[in-house]
């Protein structure tokens, strides 16, 4: 008998602008994970992206009152009930944003135990890329989650860049991270394509054009 319960991937984006590079990165990571899951096994896949900026007032109210409004309660339930989690924050003062931290402060400290988490961040310069290691990994270690080996940092210059002889381009890193999350979600099952060579789908698209595609119709 084949399992019919869908695999649930939840991406949390703490971007403040609309559109934002943080949401763009969350979408790309979620799409890469979905692609690997749909290739490697027969279960349906559900992807949900949670925009924390839409919940900012609810998050502040919950921190003060201790009672989450319905929308925030639903978001917290989605995160704790996910099979795999993608967490993406912009960099503020060399760390994750206050909105990102406030949301995860509301997650019970055992609710993510053993859950695979792909961490990612965006910033204006590559100098802040260590935020993934000195801030985000310790946060999810405290929450007892399992952070994946590959984390993804996207500086402004990474969008629309194809990489060089010393570093993979952003599309390659996104695909590798998505493959790792898909592999972890399926319990170590085979997920094809996680390390395939760049192809036509990896065509470099200017950053302004990528952001423009996110604007509401």
Automatic annotation (TrEMBL):
Organism superkingdom: Bacteria
The record's annotation in Gene3D superfamilies points to: 3.40.50.360
Show where the NADPH-dependent FMN reductase-like domain sits: 8-159
Which UniProt keyword terms apply here? Flavoprotein, FMN, Oxidoreductase
- The signal peptide annotation in the UniProt record is none
Q: What is its EC number?
A: 1.5.1.-
Q: Which InterPro entries match?
A: CE1759_FMN_reduct (IPR023932), Flavoprotein-like_sf (IPR029039), FMN_Rdtase-like_dom (IPR005025), NAD(P)H-dep_FMN_reductase (IPR051814)
Pfam families on file: FMN_red
Give the enzyme class. Answer: oxidoreductase
Name used for this protein in its record: FMN reductase
- Species of origin: Streptomyces castrisilvae
The lineage is:
Bacteria, Bacillati, Actinomycetota, Actinomycetes, Kitasatosporales
């Amino acid at each position: 008998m084949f399992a019919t319960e869908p695999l649930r991937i939840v991406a949390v984006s703490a971007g403040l602008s609309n559109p934002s590079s943080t949401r763009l990165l969350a979408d790309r990571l979620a799409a890469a994970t979905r692609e690997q899951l749909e290739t490697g096994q027969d279960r349906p896949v559900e992807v949900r992206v949670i925009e924390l900026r839409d919940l900012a007032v609810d998050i502040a109210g919950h921190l003060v009152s201790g009672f989450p409004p319905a929308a925030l309660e639903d978001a917290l339930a989605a995160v704790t009930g996910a099979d795999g989690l993608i967490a993406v924050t912009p960099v503020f003062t060399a760390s994750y944003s206050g909105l990102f931290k406030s949301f995860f402060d509301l997650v019970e400290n055992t609710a993510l135990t053993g859950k695979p988490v792909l961490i990612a961040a965006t910033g204006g310069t590559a100098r802040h890329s260590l935020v993934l290691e000195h801030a985000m990994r310790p946060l999810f270690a405290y929450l007892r989650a399992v952070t994946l080996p590959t984390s993804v940092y996207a500086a402004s210059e990474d969008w629309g860049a194809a990489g060089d002889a010393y570093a993979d381009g952003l599309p390659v890193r996104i695909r590798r991270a998505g493959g790792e999350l898909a592999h972890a979600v399926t319990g170590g099952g085979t997920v094809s394509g996680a390390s395939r060579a760049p192809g036509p789908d990896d065509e470099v698209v200017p950053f302004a054009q990528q952001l423009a595609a996110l604007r509401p119709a």
